[in-house]
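Consortium newsletter contribution from the modelling node. Members have asked for a concrete example of what our holo predictions look like. Here is one, prepared for the calcium ion complex that several groups have been discussing at recent meetings.
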Amino acid sequence: MPQPKPARIRRTLTALTAADLTAAALLLASATDTRAATTTPVYKGTGWKAETGSGIFSLSPDPYTIVFADTTARTKLTSYLTAPAAQVTGSVGVPVTVSTSLDTTPTSACPARHRIVVHYLYRPMNVSGMSQALPCHNTGDGSAWGGHILMDSEYWTSSTWFSTNVTTNEARRKDAVTHELGHILGLDHPNTDLDKDGVVENGECVKSTAGRKPILCSPNRGVPAATDGGRFTTEYDLPGLRQMLANYYLRQTT
Ligand SMILES: [Ca+2]
Ligand SMILES: [Zn+2]
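And here is the predicted structure:
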């Protein structure tokens, strides 16, 4: 899905309390204990890339809440969001909750802090088959603020949009939703010129020995295994999000 670069900013107070700083120091210490944490922020790794072009350099540890633009979006898309939200909550350590709330913030404005508004719209980019993420960022600390996800309804109104195979079609629908959520959480497309022909092509993304490409691969990663559909990869996307969380603390202490 195309990478939007909307000129959207959100300004917030960034004053930290002593308790915040203590919590940050403790989390940083535990991260150092359990994995090879970096000592300076990192914005790119194998199969992942920070969305620095949209002003996002880190993932805030504070909870994010997924809400819906209307009841149709809620009915159609809730089930697609629960698995990736649970992954970010459990494997990254940033709570992401799928609520039943409705939020009528227009797509031209950033929603309240840490709200992710999900829309179900016919051709939101006026192009067949294109969905869109509109990520907002905290201008104070460069963390992911939340934003809007605009899913193209054609994926659902056409039962064979991605594939005539029902299982494959559904796995790709799941991939599409999680891909856009990844953008809101600060991940960019990790495509790279692997074959060194001077062009970064569609789908040109690293692939693991397990056969998985990052779910942020643009415009998509092709056909995932059915069980991988809609899941951030453990090889690329989740380590990227964990580094983005680490960046949040590293950017405060550097
Ligand atoms: Ca190439
Ligand atoms: Zn994309």
